[in-house]
Design the sequence.
């Protein structure tokens, strides 16, 4: 498969899903509730925000303003369109930029499935710590190994921590964990099916074969092995 074909598939998958992460409605509501601002004037920042849905939900729920930073232009466009539809354009701004260059701290900092912006989890947490204003909160959500991966899974996902190491990395970066949870296998199953559905909709034999391959990699490889942690943190 060429890089161009892969790009088309990834874009098709992203276009058809609410969140580009194993995130149920229930967990999205819970995460937002736990991120409740402690003061008037708190601002949210989502780095690698995808279609911006979680950021907008947070800003809408608490009537606050925010910024989303997303490198993918099509995702940024979707986010802006949704913001306009929901009357949020004056409060929530989407920047089509490399989030690694963002320097303005905020009280609520989100980074979901995009720790690779800075490198490994430790580097991501250090960056989030620099960007979280004193007394604020950060949401870091990313992959970890629940059990030892086989060679094929390790090849795809690389070096990941386990959940205790992820929590320790957050502490080492200067955070106190407020809440730690992981996506359930049911959330993963829904996410994987919804993700593949976008590719199936392309309707070509090559797209179908790519979807088949991903399904097999999931079911016989990383299902139950790769976890997705949700860490709500505050600067220590
Ligand atoms: C797995 S998706 C998660 C998207 C979103 N946070 C969500 O949960 O739906 C990762 C996102 O990070 C974005 N991304 C990757 N590197 C980036 C960078 N350097 N700057 C900004 N966005 C980046 C990708 O384009 C993609 O939309």
Sequence:
């Amino acid at each position: 498969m060429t890089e161009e074909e892969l790009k088309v598939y990834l874009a098709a998958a992203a276009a058809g899903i609410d969140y580009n992460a194993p995130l149920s409605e229930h967990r999205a509501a819970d995460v937002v509730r736990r991120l409740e601002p402690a003061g008037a004037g708190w601002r949210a920042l989502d780095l690698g925000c995808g279609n911006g849905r979680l950021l907008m939900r947070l800003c809408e729920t608490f009537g606050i303003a925010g910024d989303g930073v997303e490198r993918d232009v099509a995702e940024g466009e979707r986010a802006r369109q949704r913001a306009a539809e929901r009357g949020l354009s004056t409060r929530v701004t989407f920047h089509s930029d490399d989030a690694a260059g963002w320097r303005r701290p905020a009280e609520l900092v989100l980074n979901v499935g995009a720790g690779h912006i800075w490198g490994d989890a430790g580097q991501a947490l250090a960056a989030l710590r620099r960007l979280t204003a004193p007394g604020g909160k950060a949401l870091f959500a990313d992959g970890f190994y629940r059990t030892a991966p086989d060679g094929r899974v390790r090849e795809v996902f690389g070096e990941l921590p386990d959940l205790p190491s992820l929590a320790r990395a957050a502490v080492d970066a200067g955070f106190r964990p407020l809440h730690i949870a992981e996506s359930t296998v049911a959330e993963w199953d829904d996410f994987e099916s919804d993700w593949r559905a976008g590719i199936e909709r392309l309707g070509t034999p090559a797209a179908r074969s790519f979807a088949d391959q991903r399904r097999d990699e999931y079911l016989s490889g990383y299902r139950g092995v790769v976890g997705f942690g949700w860490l709500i943190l505050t600067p220590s």
About this structure: The mean pLDDT is 97. The two ends are 46 Å apart (CA to CA). The longest helix spans residues 205-222. Strands lie at 43-47, 65-69, 92-95, 106-112, 132-145, 175-182, 226-235.
